[in-house]
Specification:
Keywords: Glycosyltransferase, Transferase. By secondary structure, this protein is an alpha/beta fold. Helices cover about 45% and strands about 15% of the residues. It has helices spanning about 5-10, 20-30, 35-50, 50-65, 90-100, 120-125, 135-145, 160-170, 175-190, 210-225, 250-260, 265-285, 290-300, 305-315, 325-330, 350-360, 400-415; strands spanning about 80-85, 105-110, 150, 195-200, 230-240, 245, 335-340, 345-350, 375-380, 385-390, 395-400, 415-420, 430.
């Protein structure tokens, strides 16, 4: 088959067959199809989009381009979660211990962060000794032993997606629903979980800025997952301000621990419970009307916190971090209050700017090769709808490099908008599918 004909067909608005998509993608991965032809095909998709079947077929080709992780040797119902990314998103650190303490199996492969803040792997590695690079046998052994393990993603999963994304990034074809959905689900379906719950974020700190786009992405990914035989659900959540109060790796670990002790911020708790509830219902381990009660009980009883401690110990970390995070986790040399220049109410917060402030301090990566400073970050004290006095602290900056503080402070202050009249607090969960 001629790749020219595959491109022409898509350019003219007709759907490609699975065989055509496979020929193009496999040829590209092998170096037999040039990037200029794939670029033309991606641009044709950008303007003409894909059918549900095309999207599912593209996902299948992507996930079959590399290693697939067979979890059949792991006991129990395997549950997984994916977030489209946000600022202060430490849900996995709270969610995993909760569902594992309820008897579900949480075998998660997570990534490192690129951009605002670190990824789940970076956050966990801020715990002294915690290892996220695990051989497959060790990963399986830990999961079978305690019901939970979190490791870094293998480079062998979905290599086609890595090549496609790099090309999309330089050809202005990143933000197309079918391409986004197949990219995410190609990696997610390569791990053989039974249940997948998606956290699709929308707002200033999210990839999908508009709510309608976030909903469309959620529906597209759900369709792909169901076509591949997975039990699926999606929560569309707000990212027009950071989730929780802490933004930064060790800071977020500390907040996750506090949440499992029942002392965390309300929004982090609300979102985690919503995702956990979907996992419990889809896994059918209890009556749907009892799911939320089960989740609350495992936190109140301390079982979820105990499960986190078991996870930390099993992966080489210092388990005392659960009892005394202030002493065990790395801490920043400097701590500065960022004070409000206005009196009134917080009208809006640009979550992305808060994330960039944390990245400037060293909590995130601008380039893949950049290192992470686990101790630094931002604590958000005032959120949308809160009343604030002139000179009252809006946030706290934790820094190790005094020269980075002023730049981070400027970005942080620029993220806030104020109103003289009362402002309604933001809705956290927009929709659950």
């Amino acid at each position: 088959m001629r790749i020219y004909d595959v491109i022409l067909k898509k350019r003219d608005g007709y759907p490609n067959t699975k065989e055509e998509i496979k020929a193009l993608i496999d040829g590209y991965v092998k170096g037999e199809v040039p990037d200029y032809q794939v670029s033309a095909w991606l641009m044709a998709i950008f303007f003409n989009h894909m059918t549900d079947e095309e999207r599912s077929n593209l996902t299948e080709v992507i996930l079959n381009s590399g290693e697939r992780i067979d979890l059949s040797s792991i006991k129990g119902i395997k549950v997984d979660k994916h977030s489209t990314g946000g600022v202060g998103d430490k849900v996995t650190l709270v969610l995993g211990p909760i569902v594992a303490s309820l008897g579900l199996t949480f075998a998660k492969l997570s990534g490192r962060g690129l951009g605002h803040t670190g990824g789940t792997v970076d956050k966990l590695e801020s715990i002294p000794g915690f290892r996220t690079t695990l051989e497959k046998d060790e990963f399986f052994s830990i999961v079978n032993d305690i019901g939970i393990a979190v490791a870094g993603q293998t480079a062998n999963i979905a290599p086609a997606d890595k090549k496609l994304y790099a090309l999309r990034d330089v050809t202005a074809t990143v933000d197309e629903i079918s391409l986004i959905a197949s990219s995410i689900m190609g990696k997610k379906l390569a791990v053989d979980s039974d249940v997948i719950v998606l956290d699709v974020k929308t707002g200033s700190g999210a990839f999908m800025k508009k709510l309608e786009d976030a909903k469309a992405l959620a529906i597209a990914m759900l369709d792909i997952g169901k076509r591949h035989g997975r039990k699926m659900s999606a929560v569309v959540s707000d990212m027009n301000q950071p989730l929780g109060n802490m933004v930064g790796n060790a800071l977020e670990v500390k907040e996750a621990i506090e949440t499992l002790k029942g002392k965390g911020p309300d929004d982090l708790f609300e979102l985690t419970v919503a995702i956990a509830e979907r996992m419990v219902i889809l896994s059918e381990i209890g009556k749907p009307e009892k799911a939320r009660e089960m989740i609350h009980d495992t936190i109140k009883s301390g079982k979820a916190l105990k499960k986190l401690k078991a996870l930390v110990e099993a992966q080489g970390g210092n388990p005392e971090v659960v009892d005394d995070p202030e002493r065990i986790l790395p801490s920043a040399r400097y701590k500065f209050e960022v004070k409000s220049p206005y009196e009134g109410f917080v009208e809006s917060i640009d979550a992305q700017e808060i994330g960039i402030s944390a990245m400037i301090l060293g909590a995130g990566r601008e380039k893949k090769e950049d290192g992470i400073d686990p101790a630094v970050g931002v604590e958000v004290l005032k959120k949308v709808g809160d009343r604030v006095q002139r000179g009252e602290p809006l946030a706290v900056i934790y820094a190790n490099d005094i020269n980075k503080y002023e730049t981070a402070e400027r970005r942080l202050l620029g993220a806030y908008r104020f109103s003289k009249t009362a402002v309604q607090k933001l809705k956290l969960i927009h929709e659950i599918f």
